């Protein structure tokens, strides 16, 4: 079926879909040998597990090839790549005499899947659509561009995952109504309030949807796997640095994931996690039960109690409330929502659904397309449906405060700003720092809330060079670096002073705007010569 391709690269699974013009909906694409069917009952969809294995003979195994050959927890296998790419993780793993990063492994995986999907969909040479979390930074979008380029697909469009999901739900969507998309996948939880334009609005703007508010947090199914893993070690009185635990860490994580998935199935109340050390015969494990009391002194863990202790439900509530608060500034409140549409494999966890039902009521919460709605919607976006959107993050100019001796940040674009803009969103004066200065610049930073809220004791799983998994505490410095990203670090100096400037001289007056492609535009006036040196000059791409 030839058509425009949409691909949703996920932490656990990757889904491809093609837009069918005749039916006006996205259709998932099966990729033989690399994919498998996932889901329950009539809602089984083709996915490619987000896995890559580097074999000793130099071959690369992708997706289901890794699972079917028993290499899921083998050395040389990468998983959770999206999560580590998003966090700019420096971790590398020793593979066949070289060190491979998650960025490189993810690029090898995604570029191969893109090429395979294009062949299956008959869309080679066409523009495609890729998806990104609402909390992603520009570096993640640049990484997606590199992967698409490696696959021979330099022409692509980008859409955030919750917005794509609204198109993927298809028949449930009615023009003129507002919906909350709740996307809980392997690496992130996201919420977006979206209004579907009616025919009159669409005719005037060409836009299919208007995004009213969105928010996200850096937790997902892989985070839950980590919590189960940490609980297992604690109940067994073991540490992640123990030699036998290091050897078994990959197998243990696989079993933690399987137990989580088992308790996401209807009717399942218990799942056993058990891994035997082949060298000693000793067993590490726990019984994971869905809910209820945990018998004292036994290795029985209540899944729902564990999620509650880790504040999962309160963090979900905060993400939803942030998206609703943003929508409220545009005149929409909770009562205006026609439905809550759930997507992402982690949304299948029953207690997660109950959390949303407590907020919105059972009748408004739908979960018909949890695994493929994002990819199907991305295919529709590639085919030409569009969104009236707004900027997701705050953007700021960094400046040095001589009094405090510290760098400070002045917001130049606020999160929620609609684009394109017709008036300047910010103006400022640029001063010289020393006599004879020829080039002046502006350091522009992309900001977001701290990923872990600055909470003490926040942890993450990291893979050491040997391939063993260990738990690492996230330092305040790490948390800070993930919340600020210098997006024009490679070219911050672009204002040229002729004649040269003097120290402290107010030399340029600049104004910022945003175009339809989310580029930050700069117009600069030289205050000495009176000339306009730049007019609508693109500085950086916003998200």
UniProtKB/TrEMBL annotation:
GO terms for molecular function: ATP binding; ATP-dependent protein folding chaperone. It comes from the Bacteria. Keywords: ATP-binding, Chaperone, Nucleotide-binding. InterPro entries: ATPase_NBD, HSP70_peptide-bd_sf, Hsp_70_fam. Gene3D superfamilies: 3.30.420.40, Actin, Chain A, domain 4, Substrate Binding Domain Of DNAk, Chain A, domain 1. Signal peptide: none annotated. PANTHER family: HEAT SHOCK PROTEIN 70KDA. Belongs to the heat shock protein 70 family. This is Hsp70 family protein. It comes from Actinomadura darangshiensis.
């Amino acid at each position: 079926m030839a058509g425009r391709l949409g691909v949703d690269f996920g932490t656990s699974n990757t889904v491809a879909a093609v837009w069918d013009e005749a039916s006006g909906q996205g259709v998932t694409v099966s990729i033989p040998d690399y994919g498998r069917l996932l889901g329950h009952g009539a809602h089984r969809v083709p996915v490619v597990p987000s896995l890559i294995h580097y074999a000793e003979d130099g071959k690369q195994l992708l997706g289901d090839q890794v699972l079917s050959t028993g290499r899921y927890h083998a050395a040389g296998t990468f998983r959770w790549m999206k999560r580590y790419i998003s966090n700019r993780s420096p971790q590398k793993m020793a593979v066949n005499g070289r060190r491979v990063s998650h960025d490189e492994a993810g690029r090898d995986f995604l570029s191969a899947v893109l090429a395979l999907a294009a062949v299956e969909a008959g869309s080679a040479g066409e523009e495609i659509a890729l998806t990104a979390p609402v909390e992603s930074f520009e570096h993640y979008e640049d990484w997606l561009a590199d992967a698409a380029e490696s696959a021979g697909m330099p022409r692509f469009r980008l859409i955030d995952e919750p917005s794509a999901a609204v198109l993927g739900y298809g028949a449930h969507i009615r023009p003129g109504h507002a919906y909350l998309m709740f996307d809980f996948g392997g690496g992130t939880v996201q919420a977006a309030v979206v209004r579907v334009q009616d025919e009159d609005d669409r005719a005037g703007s060409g836009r299919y949807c208007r995004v009213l508010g969105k928010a996200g947090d850096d937790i997902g199914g892989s985070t839950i796997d980590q919590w189960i893993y940490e609980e297992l070690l604690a109940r067994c009185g073991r540490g992640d640095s123990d030699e036998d635990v290091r050897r078994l860490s990959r197998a243990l994580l696989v079993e933690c994931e399987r137990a989580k998935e088992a308790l996401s199935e209807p009717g399942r109340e218990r799942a056993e996690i058990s891994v035997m050390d082949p060298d000693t015969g000793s067993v590490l494990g726990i019984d994971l039960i869905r809910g209820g009391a945990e018998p004292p002194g036994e290795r029985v863990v209540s899944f729902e109690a564990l999620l509650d202790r880790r504040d999962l439900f309160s963090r979900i509530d905060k993400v939803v409330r942030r998206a609703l608060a943003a929508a409220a500034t545009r005149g929409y409140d909770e009562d205006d929502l026609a439905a809550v549409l759930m997507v992402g494999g982690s949304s299948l966890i029953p207690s997660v659904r109950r959390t949303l039902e407590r907020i919105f009521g059972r009748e408004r919460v739908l979960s018909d397309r949890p695994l493929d709605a994002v990819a199907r919607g991305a295919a529709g976006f590639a085919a030409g449906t569009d969104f009236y959107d707004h900027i997701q993050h705050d953007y700021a100019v960094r400046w040095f405060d001589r009094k405090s001796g510290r760098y400070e940040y002045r917001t130049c674009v606020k999160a929620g700003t609609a684009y394109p803009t017709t008036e300047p969103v910010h103006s400022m004066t640029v001063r010289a720092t020393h006599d004879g200065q020829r080039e002046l610049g502006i350091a522009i930073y992309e900001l977001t809330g701290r990923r872990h809220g600055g909470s003490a004791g926040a942890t993450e799983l990291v893979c050491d060079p040997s391939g063993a998994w260990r738990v690492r505490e996230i330092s305040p410095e790490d948390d800070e670096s993930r919340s600020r990203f210098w997006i024009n670090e490679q070219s911050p100096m672009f204002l040229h002073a002729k004649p040269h400037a003097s120290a402290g001289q107010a030399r340029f007056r600049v104004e910022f705007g945003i175009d339809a492609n989310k580029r930050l535009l700069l117009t600069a006036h030289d205050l000495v010569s009176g000339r306009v040196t730049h007019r609508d000059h693109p500085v950086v791409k916003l998200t």
